[in-house]
Specification:
The chain is an alpha/beta fold. The strands form 2 sheets. An 8-stranded mixed sheet has the order 1-2-4-3-5-6-10-11, sandwiched between helices. Strands 7-9-8 form a 3-stranded antiparallel sheet. The radius of gyration is 18 Å and the shape is globular.
């Protein structure tokens, strides 16, 4: 980004916050929207948090019961000594069990789509429909590796916000769209301003497991990708067509990159509505 994001961010949608202990880490979640409406659980990607859904949330909460959560090592949730898709999937499972007595619609972005796919394959009784935004499934995806770096601290809020950028390194959305993500990703500590994300450890995954997820999904899958995304290529779409057996819908959002839920929230909202209308 060429300039610091503005400090003005929208107010969060009113809801009921909760925390649940999952294997020694407290996981934050929020429930908003109509209590008697269909339940939808939103799962963010790596290095992100629940603020990534901010542009879509008001519309979604007006017609669904929406559950946001922060995976461990992100946002308002605790940090761990180790992170994996399996651990995060257990956190999502625990939140679903805490908020719903019936199967839910599960929606994930980026790495969150892999987490959601893991939940859907391991706990099919909890998920009746799955929606994934710009996630790459396939045997050749790189393992991020277990190594991290020192947690970085900055003297002022302005200094840390000026360092915020979305990954992967694609053209950034407009500064006013990114500002809420930046402000929601930092916290003040006695040592200065730092990122809420745990920078000291990277998550690890088993590429064989990731490539097996599509064939193990036993509910309808809607896969949405950005036309200009560096993450999802035609080979990933071909892999899905060859391996998904439960019913696959593929949608492309024109002229956007990996963070399409921020770049073009209105189109993504429309696609979520269509996804929810196809639920069993």
């Amino acid at each position: 980004m060429t300039s610091s994001p503005t400090l003005t961010i929208p107010e969060p949608v009113d809801g009921q916050d909760g925390r649940i202990d999952v294997d020694g880490a407290e996981i934050w979640y929020r429930v908003s929207g109509a209590h008697d409406a269909p339940t939808m659980v939103l799962v963010h990607g790596s290095g992100a948090n629940h603020w990534w859904w901010y542009a879509m949330l008001p519309a979604l909460a007006s017609r669904y019961r929406v559950v946001e959560l922060d995976l461990s090592g992100h946002g308002e949730s605790d940090h761990r000594s180790d992170y994996s898709l399996e651990t995060w999937a257990e956190e999502v499972r625990a939140v679903i069990a805490a908020v719903s007595d019936a199967p839910v619609a599960l929606v994930g972005h980026s790495m969150g789509g892999m987490v959601c796919g893991t939940v859907a394959t391991r706990h099919p009784e909890l998920v009746d429909a799955l929606m994934v935004f710009d996630t790459s499934f396939g045997p050749d995806d790189r393992n991020p590796g277990p190594m991290g770096r020192a947690q970085r601290y900055y003297p002022t809020l302005e200094a840390i916000l000026s360092r915020f950028t979305l990954m992967p390194p694609q053209p950034q959305p407009a500064a006013e769209l990114v500002a809420p993500l930046a402000r929601g990703s930092v916290r003040e500590t006695p040592g200065g301003w730092t990122w809420k994300q745990d920078q000291t450890r990277r998550w690890h995954k088993d590429p064989v497991w990731v490539s097996s997820i599509p064939a193990g999904i036993d509910c309808p899958l809607t896969f949405v990708h950005g036309e200009l995304s560096y993450v999802v290529q035609e080979r990933h779409l071909a892999f899905l067509r060859e391996n998904v057996v439960s019913g696959l819908t593929i949608e492309m959002v024109p002229a956007v990159h990996h963070h399409l839920i921020v770049e073009d929230a209105p189109t993504c909202i429309r696609l979520v509505d269509a996804f929810m209308s196809r639920r069993p």
